Every structure is written in structure tokens, then in C-alpha cells.
Amino acid sequence: MNLMPKLAARAEAGRPVRCALIGAGKFGSMFLAQVPHIEGLEVAVIADLDPERARNACRAVGWDEARIAGTCFVDSGVSAAEMDGVEVVIEATGHPAAGARHALAAIATGRHVVMVNVEADVLVGPVLAAKARAAGVVYSMAYGDQPALVSEMVDWARATGFTVAAAGKGTKYLPSYHRVTPDEVWGHYGLTPEAAKAAGMNPQMFNSFLDGTKSAIEMAAIANACGLAVPEDGLSFPPCGVDDLAHLLRPKAVGGQLERDGMVEVVSSLERDGRPVFRDLRWGVYVVLKAPNAYAAACFKQYGLPTDSSGLYAAMYKPFHLIGLELSISVLNAALRGEATGATRGWRGDAVATAKRALKAGETLDGEGGYTVYGKLMSADASRASGALPIGLAHHVKLKRDVAAGAVVTAEDVVLDEASQIVQLRRELAAHAW
Predict the structure, then answer these.
(1) What is the CA radius of gyration of the chain?
(2) Which residues contact 419 (CB under 8 A, 6 or more apart)?
């Protein structure tokens, strides 16, 4: 609650917080839109594969030419991470292998890392976090994105003495969405392909939000940061509005739908027949609390929390998240407090590649939101035991054998480049007892 006084002191001393942004896409652009309005925060360098596109992104969000001229633009994320004078490196490419590479470069040169790239975090985050701790720097989730916001709510719940029964987010979901391809995605968003193209929207990226992949990745990140369990059969996406969170997201033993207390889950804004859920949580996040005693349960009711019929379970929720517009909270926490806004602490959940259709030997997988696979949430133990292929390694890899529709793809089913840095980091993750 004292970030701004700390930042003001730095500004008055002529020592602004200087950061590097790697990836000037939507998330990065939203962050850039806020920077001119936060005195004491500067973006020293922006890395993008197309630096001119990054300059245009700055213009689009309102930067004046003087600010653009005073900022360094490069096409190398590693160069940006290693630039002199940078305190915090923001990794916002969304590419797992690139994200890990940039994080390692930042950690090696003593810079804090804000990992917007949740795909990289779920793929090898425990390894990156351990390396950051050893180097004495912060490795943080990105505030504004759902995993960091949920981690904050879980931390608050535990610090106030409550058991966390469930935590997660809302999304638009139907079972059929797991099979949707980029060719079909825009109809589900109420857009024409032409309108989406004119707006510069990437169909594969948006399809990863729809087909369940992004939900699996984000819930794995939350499980890994908060020590929560993942459902044995993956996310069930129950239709649920905010008034029913405490009733539905409690253990089956007391009338809910969870295996036990302490789970992650995503709720759908659609009933299974496609009707909208009443007071849905499509854009928000939640935590379901369990009271430790009858007195606390009575307080739930007295202060208006939505509870289950027993009064022991109550829900807190945030109906919206502003992704990149809130990212400065992570940057400033890292630089001014030396603290993360949520961080991977172990390996509890994984997002694994699952066949959208019958796949044949010789086909090439195309990763998150593509035509071949989607990401399914699985426990880390089950993933390790089965040799499941993480969705973050399902990019441009060839199948060695057929995989049935709906089956989890294993590492033995594909040809992996064992010499690549990202595969070696993943092997390091799987070999360690987290």
C-alpha cells in the first residue's frame, strides 16, 4: 500500500525504476499506455522482432515522439535483458522457449523478471524461479493477469486464517470448444474473419483462450504458485455464477463438485445448452473460503458474503481484470520491495498436449490454439508418470506414431530436439523432486 511514496522518493532522487519490455503485443501495449502517467517509472528498452512495429505500438497508445526517441528499440530480447541500467525485465512474448531464454539472460545479469509469459512459466517455471532465488533476484507473475490476481486472493485468505476451498477464474466454455480450430474461432467471438484481420487479431492466439488451453495453463500456474491441487480428470468448467460459487465449489462430501478442499477450477459463463449463466464471472477471478469456526461463519452472513447453505463456505471475487494496464504493480513491487506478485513455488500442475482429432504419424503439431492439440490440466505427478508432452513443447514437432482423438500426447510420440535449451530445462524440471 505504499508503492507510490517509495516510487516518489526514487523519482525525487533522480533514480527512476527502469525496465525492459520484451514483446510489444497487446499485453505489452496496455502496459506502455500507462507508463507516461506513472512518474518515476521508465521503459528504457523495448525488444520486438519488428522494432518498427513496436514504435508504432507506442504511437498507438499515446506516446509522443520525444518519448519514443528517448527509448531504445531492439530486435533481441536477450540484448534488452542485458542492457545496462535496467532493473526489471518484462517477458511478454508468449513464446515458451523465448520466454525461458530471456528470463535466464535477465537472471544471469542480476535483473528481476516479471513473467507475463505464463506459457513459459508453466513449462519450466519452477526451474527459473529456483535460479532467480539463487541469484537473489525476483521472479514474478504479472499482476493484472488472472494467475497473479488469484494468487493475491489466496494469500489474503490464508493470511486471515481461512482455508482455501477453491480458487480460479471464469471463462466462456462448452465441451465442444476443445475441438475448435483457428478457422472457426471468430464465430464464437461474434466477429467476421475480415473484421478480426482488420483489427490485427491472431486467430490461433484467440483460439487458445477458447479451446481450454489458456485455462489449463493458468490453473497450472496458480496451483504451482499457491500449492493447490488440480482435479484428477482435468478442469470440469462447471456453469456457475457468482452467487453459486460457495455452493458449487466445495467438496462433494458436503454437496459440492470438488474432490476436496484446496483445488483450482474454472467456471463457465455458459450453461451446457449454451444459455448464459446468471451473473457470470467470465472476466473475473474468485476464491472460495472455508470458515475455521462457527463464529467466523456467522460473520460471513453478518457482513453479506455469499455463502453455501451451511454458512461455512463463502466466496470472494473480482469481476474484472485489466491485464497489462495493471502490470506496473509487478514491476514496482520487484524494484521497490524486492517482492513478487505471485511466484511459482513448486510443481503441482501441468498443461499437456491433447489431440483435437485423430492424429497420424508424420503430422506436425502446432501448439496452443492450433489445429492439432489443446492443453489439458493434469497433476504434475500424473504428467511425470505418463511422460505427457507439455503443451509448451508441442510447437512444430513431428509425430512418430498415431494418437487417438482425445488422447494425451506423450514425449515418446514426437521427435524432440534434446539439445535445445527449453527441452533441457524441462528435463531438469521433471528430474527434480519439487
Answers:
(1) 22
(2) none
Give the length of the chain: 434
Strand order in the sheet with 263-268: 263-268, 163-171, 285-290, 313-318
**Residue 67 pLDDT greater than 90, yes or no:** yes
Q: Note whether 210 and 370 are within 8 A (CB).
A: no
Q: Where are the alpha helices (DSSP H) in 35-82?
A: 51-60, 65-69, 77-81
Residue 309 burial by Cβ neighbours in a 10 Å radius (0-12, 13-18, 19+) = exposed
Smallest CA-to-CA distance from 374 within 351, 397, 344, 398 is with: 351
Name the phi and psi angles at 10, rounded to 5: -65, -40
CATH 3.90.380.10 at 3-145+329-337, yes or no: no
Grid coordinates given for 175: 465441451
On the CB side of 296, how many CA atoms lie within 13 Å of its CA?
A: 13
Amino acid at 108: A
Please give the Cα distance from 351 to 96 (Å, whole number). Answer: 13
Residues 374 and 431: their CA atoms lie apart, in Å, by 25
Class of domain 349-431: alpha beta
Question: In 215-225, which positions are buried (b, 16+ CB within 10 angstroms) versus exposed (e)?
Answer: bbbbbbbbbbb
pLDDT at 200 exceeding the cut of 80: no
pTM recorded for the entire structure: 0.96
What is the rounded distance in angstroms from the CA atom of residue 389 to the CA atom of residue 372? 13
| Extents of the domains making up the chain | 3-145+329-337, 147-173+212-320, 349-431
Model confidence pLDDT, tens digit, residues 69-80: 999 999 999 999
The amino acid sitting at 144 is G
